[in-house]
């Protein structure tokens, strides 16, 4: 991901990407919106998994990004 992101300039982020979802619907979306979706989707998944693990007695601990940076 770092290599890919490092190869993109501002105009590359505006590039429109065409794709088809699993239901066969076609979409065209700017790359920057897709990348933002990837980040948000990962955050949502981690938070949902953390809630489930905590409810089962296995809290994953602090998942805050700033806490990760301070390790």
Fold and architecture overview:
This protein has a two-stranded antiparallel ribbon. The chain is built from four helices and two strands, in the order ααββαα. By secondary structure, it is an alpha+beta fold. It is flat.
Helix/strand order = HHEEHH
Strand content: 5-15%
Q: Which structural class do the helices and strands define?
A: alpha+beta
Q: How many distinct beta strands?
A: 2
Q: Ranges with pLDDT <50 over ≥5 residues?
A: none
Query: Quick one: biggest sheet?
Result: 2 strands, antiparallel
What key phrases describe this protein's structure?
flat; 55% helix; 4 helices; 14% strand
What would a concise description of this structure say?
Helices cover 55% and strands 14% of the residues. It has 71 residues and is of the alpha+beta class.
Draw up the topology in text.
Elements: H1 2-6, H2 10-13, E1 16-20, E2 26-30, H3 31-55, H4 65-69
């Amino acid at each position: 991901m770092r290599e890919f992101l490092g190869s993109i300039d501002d105009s590359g982020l505006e590039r429109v990407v065409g794709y088809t979802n699993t239901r066969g619907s076609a979409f065209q979306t700017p790359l920057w919106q897709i990348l933002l979706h990837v980040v948000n989707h990962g955050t949502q998944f981690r938070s949902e998994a953390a809630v489930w693990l905590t409810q089962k007695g296995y809290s994953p601990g602090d998942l805050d990004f700033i806490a990760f940076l301070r390790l």
